[in-house]
Amino acid sequence: TTMDEHRLFKFPVFRLPKSATVRAMGMYLSGALYAIGFWVLLDAALYSKRVNASLVHVTFVDWVPAICSSLGMLIINSIEKSALLNNDASFMQPSSTTTWQARVVLFIGFSLLATGIAGSFIVLILKFLIKGYNTFPTLGMGVANVVSNASIMLSCIVLWVVQNFEDDDYNYSLAL
Amino acid sequence: MTVKPITKIIFLSVLLSIGILLVVLSCALFHNYHPLYVIAVFLVAPIPNAIFSNLNANYQSDFLSDSAPNGNPFKDFGEFVTGIFVFSGLVLPIVFWHVQLIVFWSMIMSLSGGFIVYASIILFSMFFHMSDDDEGFDF
């Protein structure tokens, strides 16, 4: 059959899972990573409210980087990926405009994501480290912010890579 | 070896009841009913997937002629949301424990209970979805 011609490994035992399965798994993984990001931050907020004995508390400022990251992730992954792949040498004029728009919107999305990561480090440094809160139960609330934003970014990366899997069996490309 | 459907159903219902028993016990033994949220989250978890994979069918029949290189956004979104819910259910007891809403053994019991509840839901869909999905999945 056609399946056997497209085999990647010599032994028929090894074969990559179907791209549809990989795609679904990637989606679940991405959701799980996003949930880690959300719960780590919520955990820090609840910890600050209920258990925290120190003077520093989680306020709205601590949520801002995660909100930036989430908005960036939403923007990046809402873009139709095929709009980006059109080159300017394309024969249709409107499509190059779409490509340009897509690149601008994508740039905004990546900027928001980077702002989220940078912002989480800013919160960690300015709110915790500079003011001398560098022992662990207290510092944990700042570290949680970085972990949260990092996992949201990782979730975004997984989502991006998985969306670019080609739909046909076995041979998928990681374009862009 | 084939297993009769009735055996599967009995096995799954026993598994589900063990899971729920563990979660309820983790509440009742410590007089603290916070871990009950775990069951709610796990019961909600498969719903987005179910809804969005039904949208999936409509979407594909509309745009089958078009070359859609990037798969189906609705299905992807449903899987994403389901992933969020499943993981939320898994980490909820840990968060409750960390913020000292529940004690350590209550966390262990509700964690394993929630895991068993979700495993039974997953197994149910694996046992009874596979046969009628096969032809659509394998083209």
UniProtKB/TrEMBL annotation, chain B:
GO biological process, one term: late endosome to vacuole transport via multivesicular body sorting pathway
Pfam assignment, any one: Vps55
Transmembrane segments: 9-31, 37-57, 77-96, 102-124
Keyword Transmembrane helix in record: yes
Keywords: Membrane, Transmembrane, Transmembrane helix
Family according to the record: Belongs to the OB-RGRP/VPS55 family.
UniProt protein name: Vacuolar protein sorting-associated protein 55
GO cellular component, one term: late endosome
Cited InterPro entries: Vps55/LEPROT (IPR007262)
Subcellular location: Membrane
UniProt entry tagged with the keyword rRNA-binding: no
PROSITE patterns, A to Z: PROKAR_LIPOPROTEIN
Topology of this chain in the membrane: Multi-pass membrane protein
Coiled coil: none
Organism of this sequence: Komagataella phaffii (strain GS115 / ATCC 20864) (Yeast)
Major localization class: membrane
